[in-house]
Amino acid sequence: MIQVLMYIGITILTVLVMEFVAWSAHKYLMHGWLWIWHEDHHKPHHEKEGFFEKNDLFFLVFAIPSALSYIVGLATPQRWLLFVGIGISIYGLIYFLIHDVYIHQRFKWFRQLDSRYSRAILRAHGSHHAKTHKEDGESFGLLIVHPKYFKKRSEWNEKAKSE
Ligand SMILES: [Zn+2]
Ligand SMILES: [Zn+2]
């Protein structure tokens, strides 16, 4: 029983840690020397061709530590690593569903989703995309959103007008 709780804990912790890993990878690598793979994600929609972006390669990059955790976790007594692998997979799935499907609408699913949190995520990532250059971006994370993006719709519209 205690072991089950421990494994669930490790999985949840990994999902949370992945938000910070993704944030720092986005800020320091993707907007750094890996900009060559990330640049096309910041291009305006009409300049894109085809379904895939070079940016999608990052899903493969993050699949490597995940796969290694599965393999080592299953093949050695270090069983906890299996749950690190599962945590990374879950974060990847959440990232795909929120970032690629909900925000960028690569599939037409759950577009009607509307809550304070979902609006905050949209605004935060929208302000990330407002910059099309490598430098001085903001909102590099996905799930953890600056409180300023949680303002009520009316307050937000006022702010947008005054800018
Ligand atoms: Zn970016
Ligand atoms: Zn994006």
Automatic annotation (TrEMBL):
Signal peptide segment: none
Membrane-spanning segments: 6-25, 57-74, 80-98
Entry keyword set: Carotenoid biosynthesis, Membrane, Oxidoreductase, Transmembrane, Transmembrane helix
Gene Ontology BP annotations: carotene metabolic process; xanthophyll biosynthetic process
Domain of life, source organism: Bacteria
InterPro entries, per database record: BETA-OHASE-like
UniProt key word Transmembrane: yes
Keyword Oxidoreductase applies: yes
GO molecular function: beta-carotene 3-hydroxylase activity
Sequence similarity: Belongs to the sterol desaturase family.
Full protein name: Fatty acid hydroxylase
Organism: Haliscomenobacter hydrossis (strain ATCC 27775 / DSM 1100 / LMG 10767 / O)
Organism classification: Bacteria, Pseudomonadati, Bacteroidota, Saprospiria, Saprospirales
